[in-house]
Amino acid sequence: MLPQMVTRGPVWDLDPIVFTLPVLNLPVRYYGIIFGLVLLGGFFLFRRQIVRGRGSEDEAFDFVLPGALGVVLGARLGHVFFYNFDYFLRNPWWLFRIWEGGLASHGAALGLIAALFYHSRRFKRPFWDTCDRFSFSAALGAALIRLANFFNSEIVGRVTDGPFGVRFPRFDQLPPELTPARYPSQLVEFSLGLSVLAALFWLDKKLGREKRPVGALSAAFLVLYFSGRFLVEFIKERHGLVDDFLLSRGQLLSLPGIILGLALIVHSIKKGQKNDQPVKSAAARDKPGRSGRRSKKKFGERDHA
Q: Per residue in 33-56, pLDDT tens?
């Protein structure tokens, strides 16, 4: 039960709507603005990696649509099937009412994997090489989406009496003076995503950038991020499972990512595959003259920034 009176901790009661478009009467939310930043920032990070790997800007740009669709559809389906399947069976049309909320990060990850597989096949680039180049964007997106959740007063932490609690009246639907303090788990995951992004930049440099083993950055992202998610779940409000169950739904869904990352590390070390040969993408094949000029350079020589 919620305590009768909790006064400790700052109150976070920001209106999630920034403004409303006058003619269309359409509300613009912080979440939507931040999601736009996710797409923009993710694109620039991915483009930097693709161009550095002898791909074209078109190859990076062509991932925007399938990547965005993969995130939105995967996140929605993940929320429906992982967390609210019973409600979906009673109300099937609820699947399409995305404006009512309900997105799951693990579902978004699966949607992205499908989009990355499609993109790698289309441009004839090895799948794990594509994933390596997208891992920076994934870390940035994971961080910013949790910041958007904080602005929305959602995906909150458990009730706490500790010094780091924050009160979310909009989540608990109580007056501020009666609202319990909760762990700001969204900010913890925001910090986790930024930390993983910094670790990827460091590891990319440490492994020689374009000389790094294929799959190394993907493995690092999977192990670091999902291990962090597994730990953060201990302070998050549970969804979908009873409190006396050993692990939360989010922890169970994080385990495959950790296991896959560890297996990829072993495979990458065992195989010793390096990015020492240029990848001839579909865009490059369409421009033989440009590709021919670039092939005279060492792979990865174009940009070491």
A: 998 999 999 999 999 999 999 998
Distances (CA, A) of 119 to 130, 159, 168, 290: 8, 43, 40, 21
Exposure of 240 by Cβ count < 10 A (0-12 exposed, 13-18 middle, 19+ buried)? middle
How many degrees, rounded to 5, is the angle at CA 258 between CA 53 and CA 207?
35
> What are the residue ranges of helices labelled H in the chain?
30-52, 57-61, 64-83, 85-90, 105-122, 127-151, 169-172, 185-206, 216-232, 249-271, 282-285, 288-294
Work out the end-to-end distance of the chain between its first and last CA atoms, rounded to an integer number of angstroms: 54
Write the DSSP symbol of residue 167.
E
Q: At what angle do helices 105-122 and 64-83 cross, to 10 degrees?
A: 150
**Average pLDDT of the chain to the nearest whole number:** 83
Beta strands 181-182 and 166-167 are antiparallel
Pairing of strands 26-29, 166-167: unpaired
Longest dimension (CA), the chain: 73
Cα→Cα distances 5→141, 160, 163, 179, 184, Å: 37, 13, 16, 7, 19
Answering whether pTM is above 0.70, one says yes
- The residues spanned by each domain of the chain are 25-294
* Bridging pattern class, strands 26-29 and 17-21: antiparallel
pLDDT tens, position by position, 93-133:
766 666 555 667 777 888 899 999 999 999 999 999 999 99
Closest CA to 239 of 149, 155, 148, 144: 155
Helix (H, G, I), strand (E, B) or coil at 181: strand
